[in-house]
UniProtKB/TrEMBL annotation:
Pfam families: DnaJ, Zn_ribbon_CSL
Chloroplast in keyword set: no
Name of the protein described by the UniProt record: Diphthamide biosynthesis protein 4
Record has Plastid as a keyword: no
InterPro entries for the chain: DnaJ_domain, DPH_MB_dom, DPH_MB_sf, J_dom_sf
Source lineage: Eukaryota, Fungi, Fungi incertae sedis, Mucoromycota, Mortierellomycotina
Species in which this protein is naturally found: Actinomortierella ambigua
Function: Required for the first step of diphthamide biosynthesis, the transfer of 3-amino-3-carboxypropyl from S-adenosyl-L-methionine to a histidine residue. Diphthamide is a post-translational modification of histidine which occurs in elongation factor 2.
DPH-type MB domain segment(s): 46-119
Amino acid sequence: MLKDYYALLGLPQDATHADIKLQYQRLLLQHHPDKVQQRQEEAKATGSPVMLQDIKEAWECLREPAQRAFYDTSLKESGSYSTPCRCSGEYVISEAELELGVDTVVCSTCSLIVRIHYEVASDGDEED
């Protein structure tokens, strides 16, 4: 399954390049190995800190416009939806799971569970 780099960085998909770069730099400083004690306290409080490698991976993917456009297309085609968890993990559900009636999702890194509420979109172009 494709990682949602926007969720990992805590940004919307329509974030500007400047927003992505600024958030990358903030997270890089926050999770830098020199701040080991802070990261250990975070791990105790949340269960799992954001990994520095994931932050770098997200930046490498989103920093170039052509690569970001390809990633955005791939993300849309994957047919899945995701949102970040407070532990820095994420909740991911696919369209296929929704069609089967699945309405609960477990976080990818902790044991928190969320219930999905959604409505099926209808084509507004249908005529009677």
